[in-house]
Amino acid sequence: MGWKKLVILSVLISLFQNCFFKGYRTNEFGVNRPIKNKFTLGQEPYKLASNEIINVNAVYVKTDSIYNTSATTKKKELALYNVFLRFFSNGKFIKSSFNGDVKKSFQEFNNLKKALFVGYYRIEDKKLKIEYFTVSAHGRKSYIKNEFKLINDSIEGFKKLKVEGLTGTPDW
Fold first, then answer.
1. Range of weakest confidence among 47-51, 90-94, 110-114
2. Are 120 and 91 in contact (CB under 8 A)?
């Protein structure tokens, strides 16, 4: 086999691998989920104890900001967005965002399929450890880990909001 055929074959195999073996699926809402569970925090079952700080009948919200540069005017503009964390008693959680008022965002808290990130958590030594799945703009999948201090009955940097009627069962 000539070197040209070998190069073409290598390129085709590489394209085939990237297209069909990407390691995640995209659901009907355009959100990526891992095909195989490779979460390190999800390897051993975790059950939230009743005396622990995290409340499964609450969401934890913070307002964040980012500077965007307008493509037309080249001006930097400040954009605000709300991030929330919702926890389940089986060690799973979602991280997502919403626009506007928290009270009008009830459906976002219950729609697990629309959540931007899914993952696992643990509480160890008064610290919340989370791990979630993400895919970059170029299709590279990653498992991101963060750690937060638990202060009184909340998470450092987040505001705890009790929400009546939270439903849904995580399926990852």
1. 47-51
2. yes
Between strands 154-155 and 141-151, the pairing is antiparallel
What letter would DSSP give residue 71? T
Residue position matching structure tokens 């450092």 = 156
Identify which of 101, 80, 91, 21 has the alpha carbon closest to the alpha carbon of residue 56.
91
Q: Would you state the structure tokens that stand for residue 156, as one six-digit string?
A: 């450092």
Bridge partners of 58, per DSSP, are: 162
d(CA 153, CA 91): 18
Give the integer Cα–Cα distance in Å for 166 and 89: 13
Task: Please return the burial class of 171, using the count of CB atoms within 10 Å of its CB with bins 0-12, 13-18 and 19+.
Answer: exposed
pTM for the model stands at 0.78
**What pLDDT was estimated at residue 128?**
94
The Cα-based distances of 21 to 2, 35, 117 in angstroms read 28, 10, 21
Return all residues near 130 (Cβ < 8 A) that are at least 6 apart: 41, 85, 93, 95, 119, 120, 121, 145, 146, 147, 148
